[in-house]
Amino acid sequence: MSYFNQVQINCSEVSAAIMFDAGINSCLEYLEAVPWSEDEEEKVLSLLCQLELHGSMTEVLQRVLSEPSTSVRTDDIFLKLLSGVLQAKDDKARREMKTLISRLLREDSFDYNSRFDVSKDTLYHLCHRCLCSLVLCLSEAMCMDSSRQDRGVLMAEIAREADNLQWLVDILIDKRMANDFVKLWADQKELAELHSRIPTMYRHEISRITAQLCIAIGRGNILVPKDSRFSLLSTWLDALYEDFRWMRRASRSVDKKLIEEGLGQTILTLSLRQQQVILLNWFHRFLNKGDDYPNIQRAFEVWWRRAFIRQYGDVPDSSNMQITICNYPT
């Protein structure tokens, strides 16, 4: 804390103690005008609350206290901020603001005293907007002549919208709000169909969303019913397989091992029959493609042991179990 700010705070305490109103007002005027560091902010707020100066400290507190009506507008503010980032024209600025907003929202999640946070409705509204944009872009790409010069612009827009959706999904996962998105993503049959009909080099960013969800499910950060997990893989697993090579090579931020672990763990949460269908399909594909496909041998091993070695069989029906009480001799 700066020397002069500390002096003014101390003077405020002394002036209040001797009821020297002119001294109090002078100190408050100074504190209202001077910049504060975050440490000084805490000190000023603590002091003013202790002194109970009421009306005379209103000007000072306006810098940090929300007006009563602000809480009503908070979600609108979050919506404007997030929408602004998603629609930003400058890619570098967009990346920087995504990092900043993500960090600030993460701080809010760990601050149990925080009264305001972005709502689930706002995040899902933006997700639906990105999904609609992706469907539109992919539909246009299907109708576009490959020789047209603006094809590259459209493909860049596809990558941009996919990146935006990845960012929103990350926020949903951080805030434990992503359960509904698994079903939403699994239901994107039209998008998955369009995805399969455009070149891999333009579409692979979309498959990273599936990878995100599998990683989160595999870590236990998303808890959804088995039907939702199987539906997710039924809709998007083939696309993830086909795009995996491009995902690895196009971005240094893609962690191959992390995706493989998440995918394997997600598969192993399914019924044994579903595991068998998926893993036998993977086995034959992997033999032909090798490193171009995710290596989920670990999941294959676990399934093998469950199916052929351990063989737990039927779970006993507990409804017919009886409890016998024995009196042991003393």
Automatic annotation (TrEMBL):
<dbReference type="InterPro" id="IPR058039">
    <property type="entry name" value="At3g05675-like_ankyrin"/>
</dbReference>
<keyword id="KW-0833">Ubl conjugation pathway</keyword>
<dbReference type="Pfam" id="PF25553">
    <property type="entry name" value="BTB-POZ_ANK-like"/>
</dbReference>
<dbReference type="InterPro" id="IPR038920">
    <property type="entry name" value="At3g05675-like"/>
</dbReference>
<feature type="domain" description="At3g05675-like ankyrin-like">
    <location>
        <begin position="75"/>
        <end position="310"/>
    </location>
</feature>
<dbReference type="GO" id="GO:0016567">
    <property type="term" value="P:protein ubiquitination"/>
</dbReference>
<comment type="function">
    <text>May act as a substrate-specific adapter of an E3 ubiquitin-protein ligase complex (CUL3-RBX1-BTB) which mediates the ubiquitination and subsequent proteasomal degradation of target proteins.</text>
</comment>
<comment type="pathway">
    <text>Protein modification; protein ubiquitination.</text>
</comment>
<protein>
    <recommendedName>
        <fullName>At3g05675-like ankyrin-like domain-containing protein</fullName>
    </recommendedName>
</protein>
